[in-house]
Structure formats: structure tokens, C-alpha cells
Amino acid sequence: MDIPKRYLSLFLLTMFITTNADAKHSVPVPNGPSTTGSVFHPFGKITVEIINDLGNTLALKYHCKSKEDDFGKRSLQPGKSWSFKFHRQFFGRTLFYCSFVLPNGRYTFNIYEDHRESAGDNWCQKCVWKIRQTGPCRLNDVTKQFAICYSWNKSLY
Ligand SMILES: *[C@@H]1O[C@H](CO)[C@@H](O)[C@H](O)[C@H]1NC(C)=O
Predict the structure, then answer these.
(1) Whose CA is nearest to atom 9 of ligand 1?
(2) What pLDDT was estimated at residue 120?
(3) Whose CA is nearest to atom 7 of ligand 1?
């Protein structure tokens, strides 16, 4: 595509606005199938999936948001999963965060952070998290193990 120089910044601005607008149309995909791709598309859609792995018969109550999106308060039965999709924003600013109600408190976690999920060997196009009582663990696409684990920080109550 040939774009005259004086239109280039306008073109980029339009691209930017379009991309940002896209992020507002993130749609939850209830219990979508678990398939993992292995090719990273920087501008492709990202899927974030969470799985209730609390154990026993505990339901997982959670609430996920970004600056533009609010998926509302939800609940997952044991072993069940829920996911949403979105387009990454330019300049690595995409951030989705969730709060989780566990037996011993309520915790928040950044379920998708651009700089964490697109860095080095740790990138994910489909970012699958098991939510455990000890913390969230993400699937490593290469080893197929839920080995990228974090500990819960301070409880909100
Ligand atoms: C706890 O805090 C550390 C340091 O800020 C952060 O890297 C980690 O993701 C946090 N864990 C959770 C589960 O939020």
C-alpha cells in the first residue's frame, strides 16, 4: 500500500483508534474448546481461559475487567472453564484483571498483561490459567504443563 507521507500519521492514528475500539468488543466465550495454537500472531486475537482448579467441590466466584470491559460477577463449577477473546492494543497496554473469591479470602490477579504474556518464551496466544488455592498457574504451550505459577498476594479481606 502506498501512502503519501503527509497522510501517514493520519493513517496510523486511524489504525490506532480502530484497534482501540476493537478492544471494547471483547466477547466472553463460555466454555469454549481448549485448543492451543503454537504460532504467535502479534495482531491476532488473544484468548484468555480460566479453569476452576480449586479442588473439592468448590465453586469459583470471580469478576474480570479491563479499562473498557466488565464481564460481571461470575461463577465456575469445579473443573469448568470460561474464556474471553480480544485484540491486543498497540504499545503493549492491554491489561485484564480478575478478582477471585477463595475459601480464605478475595484476591486480585492481572490475568493478562502484555509485557508478561508476550515476553520471550512465555508468550501465549491462548493463555490458559488454572485457578488453584495456592495461586494461578498458566499453561506452558511448549511443555503442555501448568508450570507458570504465581502465589496469591495480599487478600482484599
Ligand atoms: C504478586 O506480586 C508479584 C509482585 O508484584 C507479582 O509479580 C505476582 O504476579 C503477584 N501474584 C498474584 C497472584 O497476583
Answers:
(1) 150
(2) 73
(3) 150
Beta strands in the chain (DSSP E): 27-30, 45-52, 60-65, 70-76, 81-87, 95-102, 105-113, 126-131, 136-140, 145-149
What structural domains does the chain harbor? 27-149 (2.60.40)
**Ligand 1 centroid vs 12 CA: distance in angstroms?**
34
82 lines ligand 1 (CB under 6 A): no
Q: Whose CA is nearest to atom 8 of ligand 1?
A: 150
The 10s digit of each residue's pLDDT in 20-58 is: 334 444 656 544 343 444 555 666 899 999 999 999 899
Q: In whole angstroms, what is the distance from residue 117 CA to residue 34 CA? A: 18
Q: Which residues contact 60 (CB under 8 A, 6 or more apart)?
A: 50, 52, 54, 75, 76, 100, 101, 131
Average of per-residue pLDDT across 65-88: 96
84 lines ligand 1 (CB under 6 A): no
Instruction: Tell me the pLDDT tens digit for each residue of 130-155.
Output: 999 999 999 987 889 999 999 999 98
Residue 135 in contact with ligand 1 by CB distance below 6 A: yes
